[in-house]
Design brief:
Chains A, B: InterPro entries: Aminotransferase_I/II_large, Class-I_PLP-dep_aminotransf, PyrdxlP-dep_Trfase, PyrdxlP-dep_Trfase_major, PyrdxlP-dep_Trfase_small. Chains A, B: Pfam families: Aminotran_1_2 (PF00155). Chains A, B: Belongs to the class-I pyridoxal-phosphate-dependent aminotransferase family. Chains A, B: Homodimer. Chains A, B: It comes from Ruthenibacterium lactatiformans. Two copies of one chain form a homodimer. The first copy, chain A, has 395 residues and is α/β, with parallel strands linked by helices. The first copy, chain A, has two domains: 141 residues, Alpha-Beta Complex (Aspartate Aminotransferase, domain 1); 240 residues, Type I PLP-dependent aspartate aminotransferase-like (Major domain) (Aspartate Aminotransferase, domain 2). Helix content of chain A is 41%, strand content 15%. The first copy, chain A, is built from 14 helices and 14 strands. In chain A, the strands form three sheets. In chain A, strands 2-9-8-7-6-3-4-5 form an eight-stranded mixed β-sheet, with helices on both faces. In chain A, strands 10-11-14-13 form a four-stranded antiparallel β-sheet. Chain A has a two-stranded parallel ribbon with strand order 1-12. In chain A, helix 5 packs across helix 11, helix 6 runs parallel beside helix 7 and helix 12 runs parallel beside helix 14. The termini of chain A are far apart. Chains A and B meet through helix 1, helix 3, helix 4, helix 6 and helix 7 of A and helix 1, helix 3, helix 4, helix 6 and helix 7 of B.
C-alpha cells in the first residue's frame, strides 16, 4: 500500500547528525559529533540501590499506571529542586514530569501552534527543537546569535512582524551548538520584549547545572512575574539520559493544555524513572554529585581547548562556561563542508554548523565539537586529525 | 500572559473518565471505572531481579542515550515474541519500541493526517485513541459496532466517502469498551476493504494475550500481504503499565515516518524498561506467565458475570472472551446518566457509555464495567450497589 504521509512529516529532512551517527558503528572512528553525557558521570550505584529498594519493597508503586502530570511526590521533589537556588516555579506555575525535555518542545508546538504558524528560534540552535516544531507544522523564524545571546533588534523585528510568532525558543545557558551563554542584560531584555509583544518564551535549560567557569546567571523564568515563560529542565545530564526524565514549569493555564497533550501522547512518564529520581533528589546530596560532574566536564573542556590552541590556532572557537559543546569557526573563505568531510574520511566525526541553522543551505563556516563523550586520549587524537586536515587543505 | 491555545488542543474536552477518576481518592469508593491491570499479575520479582542484574553489571546499557527505533536486541526479541504463534511482523515490516501504545496512536495521526483529515473509528471505542487523533486535528467518522465487530456496510460507506479516511482504527480483541471480539470473517472483510479502498488499518491489540474463553482468532496484521496494517502491541497488560512499553509493527516505508516522529517526540523509549523487557522475553517463560494472568482475569470476569446474572438480570451485557471490560446495557428507555450518577452517589464508579462515543451527546443506554482492578469482594459489593440503584429507579 502507498502511504500518504502528512504534509508536516513529509517535509521533515533526515537529520544530518543522525546520518553521521549511523557511521559510528566503526569502532576506529573518533566522535566529536555526539551529544552524550559522559557515562562516568552517571550515579549508577545510587540508581541501582534505589531501584532495587523500590522494586523489592513497593513494586506496584513503580509498575502500575499513574497520573499524567507525574507522581505527586515526585512533582513536589522536582519543584523543590528547581527552586533550591532561585525561584523557577512560582505559585501560579504547575510542574509536569515528561519523557525527556524533547517532549516539552513537542508539547509547546502542539499546544501553541496551528499548522503554518511561526515560531521564533535562536539561529543556530538545537536541531531536535527545530524538528519538534516543524513536526507540528510550524515555520521557523531564526534570530541570529551573538556572543552574549540573540541579537535583540532582530528578535524585536520578528516579534513585531505581521505574523507574530507563537513563542520564542532559546537555550540561555551554554547553548547547543554554540556553547554561548546569554548575558543577564539580554535575559532581562528578552523577557521585557516577550511581555511587551505577548510572545511566550520557551527557555530550554538542559545544561544549566553543568557550569564549569564564571558565575551563575539567573534564569529568564526566575524573572517571570507575568507567566510568560515556559521552563524546560532535564535530568538527562545530571542523572542519565536513558531514563528519559525531564520537567516543565509553566503557568497553570497553559499547563492544563500540556497535561492533555501528555495524556494523548504517552499517558504518563515511566514511573520507575520518576521514583528513582525522587529518591536521588530527596536522599542524596545532588549538589555534591553535580560538583563531581562539573569536574569531569571542566577537565575535558580544558583539554580540548588547550589542544585547539596548540594545534589549530587558525580555528576560532567559543570558550564555553559549561555544557558539552565548543563551536569552531574556520578562517574566512574556508570550505567547511569539505573540512568536515575530510575529517570524517580520517575517522573524526564533527557536525557541520549548517545542521543547526534554520536554513541548512545557507553558507556556514562553523562546526560543532562535543567534549563530554570522547575520552581524553581521543580528544587529543581528534584535534590532531583536525590539524592534519587544516594543513592538507592549506588553511 | 494570555495563551492562545492551538485550535486542535483548544477543542479537546476533558475526559469524562479522568473527571470520574479524580474522585477516586475517596478510599470507600468502589471502582469499576478504571482500566488498570490487576497488580497481582505483575511479574514483580522477575522485574526486580533482571533490573538489579542490569544496573549492577552493565549500568551504561540501561542509562545512556539509545537509538530512536529501540535497542536493536530488544527489537529482535519483540519481533520473535510477536511472531511466536502467527506472522505479525513480516519481511517488509519494521518494529518500533514506543513509550506505551498510546504513542503509536499519536504517531499514526501525526504521520498520516493533516489538520481536518478524517479518521474512521469503531464506535464506541477507546477514548484515548479518539483524543490522540483529535490532538492532531483529525475529525472522527464513527462506524457502529455489532456483536462480531464493526458494521461492514457502514465501514464501506465511510471508506467510499468523498473525504476518504486516512486510516481505520479498531481493537479486534476484547474491545475497549464493549469487550467484543471481531469475528474471523469480519477481519478478512475489513482487510479486503482496506486494500480495495487504500485505507490503512490501525489494529490496536493491547488485550490480545488476555484471552479467557474461546479460541484465538488471527490478527488482521497476520493476513497482511500488502503492508496495509499498522499493528500496535503492548506490554502494559502482560508485564506492567508503569514501564510504558509497547511496540509498533508496520511497513518499513511508513515506519520511516514513525521513527522521525519518535525522534521529535521523546527521542527514544526508556532504556531500562526496554532491557528489562528483553530479559523477560528471552529468559522467562512468558507463555506460562500469561497463563497465570489469564487465570486471574478469568476468575474475576466469571465472578462479575455471575453476580450480574444473579442480582441485575435486567442488565444485558457482553460476555467477553478476554480483556478487562464488560459492557452493560440498561432496559430500553432507562436514564443511563441518572443510573451512573446514583451509583457514584452510593460509592460505585462506572463509566457512562457515551464517554466512548464519537458524539458524546448522543443518547446512550450503556455503561462500562472493569473487572481487572477491583478485588473479588468489591466486585460482589459493587454489583449489589447496581442492583440497589436499579430497584430504586424502578428498572
Amino acid at each position: 500500500m502507498e502511504f500518504k504521509i502528512s504534509d508536516k512529516m513529509r517535509n521533515m529532512k533526515p537529520s544530518i547528525i543522525r546520518e553521521i551517527l549511523k557511521q559510528m558503528s566503526d569502532p576506529t572512528l573518533i566522535s566529536f559529533a555526539g551529544g552524550n553525557p559522559a557515562a562516568d558521570s552517571f550515579p549508577a550505584e545510587d540508581i541501582a540501590r534505589f531501584s532495587d529498594e523500590l522494586l523489592r519493597q513497593d513494586p506496584v508503586a513503580a509498575l502500575q499506571y499513574s497520573v499524567s502530570e507525574g507522581v505527586p511526590s515526585v512533582r513536589e521533589a522536582v519543584r523543590a529542586f528547581a527552586n533550591r537556588r532561585e525561584r523557577v516555579a512560582k505559585e501560579n506555575d504547575g510542574v509536569l514530569i515528561t519523557s525527556g525535555s524533547q517532549q516539552i518542545l513537542d508539547f509547546a508546538a502542539k499546544c501553541l501552534c496551528n499548522e503554518g504558524d511561526v515560531v521564533a528560534v535562536e539561529n543556530p540552535a538545537f536541531l531536535g527543537a527545530f524538528n519538534a516544531f516543524r513536526s507540528s507544522g510550524a515555520r521557523l523564524a531564526g534570530v541570529p546569535m551573538e556572543d552574549d545571546g540573540v541579537n535583540l533588534a532582530a528578535l524585536e523585528a520578528v516579534f513585531a512582524a505581521p505574523e507574530k510568532p507563537r513563542f520564542f525558543y532559546c537555550i540561555p545557558n551554554f547553548q547547543n551548538p554554540t556553547g554561548k551563554t546569554m548575558s543577564l542584560a539580554k535575559r532581562r531584555a528578552v523577557y521585557a520584549l516577550a511581555v511587551r509583544y505577548g510572545v511566550p518564551v520557551l527557555e530550554d535549560d538542559p545544561y544549566g547545572e553543568l557550569r564549569i567557569a564564571g558565575g551563575p546567571v539567573p534564569s529568564i523564568k526566575s524573572m517571570d512575574t507575568e507567566g510568560a515563560v515556559i521552563y524546560a529542565g532535564s535530568f538527562s545530564k545530571i542523572l542519565c539520559p536513558g531514563m528519559r526524565l525531564a520537567y516543565c514549569v509553566c503557568d497553570k493555564k497553559l499547563m492544563a493544555a500540556f497535561v492533555v497533550a501528555k495524556q494523548c501522547s504517552d499517558v504518563h512518564t515511566n514511573v520507575w524513572a520518576q521514583r528513582v529520581c525522587e529518591a536521588m533528589l530527596t536522599r542524596t546530596d545532588m549538589d555534591a554529585h553535580i560538583r563531581e560532574i562539573r569536574k569531569i566536564y571542566a577537565a575535558k573542556a580544558a583539554l580540548m581547548m588547550e589542544q585547539l590552541d596548540e594545534k589549530c590556532p587558525q580555528v576560532r572557537y567559543t570558550r564555553p562556561e559549561g555544557g558539552m559543546f565548543i563551536w569552531g569557526t574556520l578562517p574566512e573563505g574556508a570550505d567547511m563542508p569539505a573540512f568536515v568531510r575530510e575529517c570524517l574520511a580520517r575517522k573524526l566525526a564533527l557536525v557541520p554548523g549548517n545542521a543547526f541553522m534554520v536554513d541548512e543551505e545557507a553558507p556556514c563556516g562553523s562546526f560543532r565539537m562535543n567534549f563530554s563523550t570522547p575520552t581524553p586520549e581521543n580528544i587529543v587524537k581528534g584535534v590532531s586529525v583536525m590539524a592534519g586536515v587544516l594543513a592538507a587543505q592549506g588553511l
